[in-house]
Amino acid sequence: MKRFILDTDPGIDDALTILYALASPEVKMEAITVVNGNCPMEQGVINALSVLELAGAVHIPVAKGMDKPLLLPVVNAEVTHGKNGLGYAELPVPRTSPVKEHAVELIHELVMQDPGQINIVAIGPLTNIAMAVRLYPQIVGAVEHIYIMGGAINHCGNMTPLAEFNIYCDPHAASIVFHSGIPFTLVPLDVTYQTLMTAEDLRRFEAIKTPLSDFIVKASRYVMEYLSESQEIMGCALNDPLALAALFKKDLLEISPLVLDVDTNYGVSMGKTFADFYNYEQKPANGDAALDVKARDFVDHFLERMIKLSQ
Ligand code: RIB
Ligand code: CA
């Protein structure tokens, strides 16, 4: 069983990832650490707690994390994820509360309790992870692997023409993580924008008529409408769930070791992630990146898990 901490900015596809983790016996979600991103960090904590309550998983600790990027001003994505961060879905105010530890403390505590046993699945801006690396450098040799939903290598950006949202929000944090020495796998838009849950797929949840299936429909429909209007994408891109799949369904992805980096300069390409495919500087690969995916196989696997969880 693969154990992991989910670092997240819930967010619609983040919420789907929380549910997907609960539906997957191959993994154990040890904790959820929240970061500013799709919505302000405080709202993200409420959303994480309410999704766990909806799924009957209140035993999983949730910790408050960084509420702004390392250097840049706060950016959120209300247009994509809605005012509350969960699209059209409205969940009851959670009865549970976050743990008292800060997200960075909880990451340090869990990783150092079982060195080499804990993975991190990072599906929001990387501010919490960068802070953990800076405050507790000893985690570099203790984290098993980081799976990062972020970046766009040969694909255009979704926040600017060049940059993907998670990296764009905090490129300085991304640079710290990419060069930290912690082994990581980047799951960029190159693959996640191929894994689309379609309107036909979503109709299968409409037929189930449970609180959980209703949540999935109302949350996903919001981002499907946004993507079709803004980027002519016909479906809900399963960005974050695919990053979790990289932890335990690697057979669905084509992953390559590469020299990976991010532009931290202010300007048109800020937040752009790139791979030095020809290795001009003759450097060793510092990470892996998924550049192709068995998209429909993943979507079918995801649907099977989520439909079973919803019933
Ligand atoms: O660019 C997609 C990423 O940004 C996803 O993690 C989504 O939730 C948003 O955070
Ligand atoms: Ca996210």
3D architecture notes:
This protein has 12 helices and 12 strands. It is an alpha/beta fold and 311 residues long. The protein has one domain: Inosine-uridine Nucleoside N-ribohydrolase, Chain A. The strands form 3 sheets. The chain has an 8-stranded mixed β-sheet with strand order 3-2-1-4-5-6-12-9, sandwiched between helices. A two-stranded antiparallel sheet has the order 7-8. The two termini are 24 Å apart. The mean pLDDT is 97. The structure holds alpha-D-ribofuranose and calcium ion (CA).
Largest beta-sheet characterization: 8 strands, mixed
The chain-level structural class is: alpha/beta
- List ligands, each type once: alpha-D-ribofuranose, calcium ion
Task: Tell how many strands the DSSP assignment holds.
Answer: 12
CATH classification, class level: Alpha Beta
Tell me which CATH architecture applies here: Alpha-Beta Complex
The number of helical runs is: 12
Strand content: 15-25%
Brief account:
This protein has helices at 12-22, 41-54, 78-81, 103-113, 127-135, 165-169, 171-178, 189-192, 199-206, 211-231, 239-248, 295-310; strands at residues 2-8, 27-34, 62-63, 118-122, 143-149, 184-187, 196-197, 236-237, 253-258, 260-262, 273-275, 287-293. The protein is α/β, with parallel strands linked by helices. The structure holds alpha-D-ribofuranose (RIB) and calcium ion.
